[in-house]
Every structure is written in C-alpha cells, then in structure tokens.
C-alpha cells in the first residue's frame, strides 16, 4: 500500500484570512480563477483579496470559468496569467474553477507547449496552486485531477497530469449561500466519490479510512439535505465529506458511474452531481452480485436498510432523466470503450450489463 497527500488542508472558519501568510508565501502575483458570480456572492473572493492585500501580494482576476470548463477557456486564462506575470494560481469556487486552476497553472509554467499537452504523457511541473472551495462536491481541493470539456470528443476527461493544490482553505460558511439544488447535486457528487472509491479495484485500507468515515458523515446529514434544512455544523460535516471523498479518489480514481455521467452532462446539460448520482443504485446492485457483504456495509454506513430504500432516496432528491433508446445505445457503446473507468471495477462488465445500468437508471422515452 502507499499513501501520498501533499496538499496542506485547513478546514475551519475564516481559514482564508487566518492562513493568509501561507497563501501569500506561494508567490508575488496571484492569478485568481473563478466563475462570474458565486465567489463574490458567498464572500470567498473578498476573503482572498483581503488576505493578499494584507500581505502586500498583487493579483489579477480571470472570472470567465464556465461550468464544466473547456480546454479553450483554460488556454485563454493561461495566456492572460502569463501576460500579468502571475507566478501562482488560486482557484476559488466549485470544482470547475479549482480544476481549471490546476490546468491553467500547468500551461502557464510551460509557454512553449500547446494546450494539447494537457492530454499528453509528459513530465511537467505546474505553478503553485491554492484552492478555496465554495461547494462540497468534487473534492478538487485535495485531488490531483482536473476534469475538462473536450469539445472535439464531445465529452469530459481528466487531464493526463496530476496537479495537487499546495494549499487548500476550506471554510464551510460559504456553503450557506448555495441553493438547495446546488447543495444536493454537489453533495451527491461527493457521495459518488465515496461509493466509487470504496468499491474499487484500487481500494486499500488507507483509502477506506477516508471513504468509510465520509459515508458515515453523509448518512448523518442525508435527511437534512433532502429537506433543504442544513444549518451550522451540518455545513461543516458536508465540507468534511467532500474532502474525505477527494482524498479517497486521489488514491483509487473513480469508477464507471462517473464515466456514464459525462454523456448526460455534455449532451444534455445535466449537472454533474445529478448525472453521476442517478447511476449509483444500479452500480451498487451490480457490485452486490459479486460482493453483497461489501454493498451491505456501504448501505449500513449510510443508514439505509437495503438498495431499494437507497434508490427511492436518490430518485426523491434527484428526480428522473429522460433519454431515448438511441442515446442508450450510443452511451453504452461509448462506455464499453472507456477502458480507464471499467478498469477500476474489480470484475468484467459485459455490454448487456452496461446497457442495463443505463436502462434501469434512466427513463427511456
């Protein structure tokens, strides 16, 4: 077994300002990477700016990161960052800005390379990256992954390089500004990380320390999440589940529910958390045909008595997604070619089983 976690993580109230000296120590000019609105609304952007200004560190802002950021956007941001002579990057927001920040930091440090290098196997170093998460979903603040949209392939894919944030500052107070739908979708993404890492070919005793604890915490807040009534310490628990899920998948990778979700997100605009969560009951059911005790343990951690109850909960909080038979066929063929995701499942998956996963999880029109 091995364990590698190079990110320094602080999960506490007002941690951005409390640890401003460590943030400022990463360089002399920061490129702040965000989306258009949320980082300003929840106060995270102001906290970062206040911390940098307090320490005399200059900064530039790139606030054009879209949901599911594209390689093209990342390349524009990297060019801007080089023009501004930034020497470190701070991703502020959900998974999209944090993932983009990692890819941007890599391209900024290698102006001689084309954006296609993101998907080439080369030994390249990125500029230092700091992460300030404002949602509790991707766990990107503690993972080396950056999931980007590849328009030429009409899907999403993790870049080939691993870039861990050097410093992550997770303050649960930002979650209170998220709406119910966003909280649910991002929390279900975390749930997928916990389940897919726990039931994974690459799982170890170390990775299960994170996934089992995260599953238990998720079970403690699931009813409040469903009711949209999170408060106080529950936000902190939710942020912890996100970091735990991220630590777990850093060592195992995700499995095929994540691969299946990319088709729904790219082709139909379904938010990632909803797109991946919709497949979790069928994933557990398939895994249970080989390892029923392990699936029962996961359900016990989550405080569900059986898969049927879990499926009912998922449908309650996520609703249904309608697709056509033609889409099922196309998505099935695509997943059977996704050897990376299939490889993380401990047992062979047939085309018939994969099609059944899509059919039982989606509403076929």
Structural features, described:
With 365 residues, the protein is of the alpha/beta class. The protein has 2 domains: 8-174, 3-Layer(aba) Sandwich (Rossmann fold), CATH 3.40.50.1970; 179-364, Dehydroquinate synthase-like - alpha domain (Dehydroquinate synthase-like, alpha domain), CATH 1.20.1090.10. Helices cover 53% and strands 11% of the residues. It is built from 17 helices and 10 strands. Helix 7 packs antiparallel against helix 8 and helix 8 (205-227) runs antiparallel to helix 9 (233-252).
Helix and strand content put the structural class at alpha/beta
What count of domains describes the coordinates? Answer: 2
Q: Quaternary status of these chains?
A: single chain
How do the helices and strands follow one another from N- to C-terminus? Answer: EHHEHHEHEHEEEEHHHHHHHHEHHHE
Task: Please give a handful of descriptors for the protein shown.
365 residues, alpha/beta, Rossmann fold, Dehydroquinate synthase-like, alpha domain, 2 domains, 53% helix, globular, Alcohol_dehydrogenase_Fe
């Amino acid at each position: 077994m091995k364990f590698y976690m190079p990110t320094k993580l602080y999960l506490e109230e007002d941690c951005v300002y409390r640890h401003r000296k460590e943030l400022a120590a990463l360089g002399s000019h920061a490129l702040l990477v965000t989306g258009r609105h949320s980082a300003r609304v929840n106060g995270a952007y102001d906290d970062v700016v206040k911390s940098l200004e307090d320490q005399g560190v200059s900064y530039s802002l790139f606030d054009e990161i879209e949901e599911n950021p594209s390689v093209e956007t990342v390349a524009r941001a990297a060019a801007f960052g080089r023009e501004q002579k930034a020497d470190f990057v701070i991703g502020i927001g959900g998974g999209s800005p944090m993932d983009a920040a990692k890819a941007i930091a890599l391209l900024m440090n290698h102006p001689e390379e084309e954006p296609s290098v993101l998907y080439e196997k080369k030994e390249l170093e990125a500029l230092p990256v700091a992460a300030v998460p404002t949602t509790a979903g991707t766990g990107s603040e503690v993972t080396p992954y950056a999931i980007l949209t590849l328009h030429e392939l009409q899907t999403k894919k993790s870049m080939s390089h691993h870039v861990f944030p050097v410093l992550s500052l997770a303050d649960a107070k930002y979650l209170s500004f998220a709406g119910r739908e966003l909280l649910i979708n991002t929390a279900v993404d975390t749930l997928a990380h916990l389940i897919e890492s726990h039931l994974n070919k690459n799982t170890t005793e170390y990775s299960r320390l994170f996934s089992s604890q995260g599953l238990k915490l998720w079970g403690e807040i699931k009813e409040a999440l469903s009711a949209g009534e999170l408060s106080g310490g529950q936000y902190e628990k939710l942020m912890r589940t996100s970091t735990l899920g991220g630590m777990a998948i850093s060592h195992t990778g995700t499995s095929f529910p994540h691969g299946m979700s990319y088709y729904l997100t790219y082709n139909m605009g379904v938010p990632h958390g909803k797109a991946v969560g919709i497949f979790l009951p069928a994933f557990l059911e398939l895994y249970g045909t080989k390892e029923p005790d392990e699936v029962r343990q996961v359900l016990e951690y989550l405080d569900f008595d059986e898969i049927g109850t879990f499926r009912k909960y998922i449908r309650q909080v996520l609703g249904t997604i309608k697709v056509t038979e033609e889409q099922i066929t196309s998505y099935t063929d695509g997943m059977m070619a996704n050897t990376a995701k299939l490889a993380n499942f401990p047992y062979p998956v047939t085309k018939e089983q994969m099609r059944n996963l899509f059919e039982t999880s989606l509403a076929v029109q």
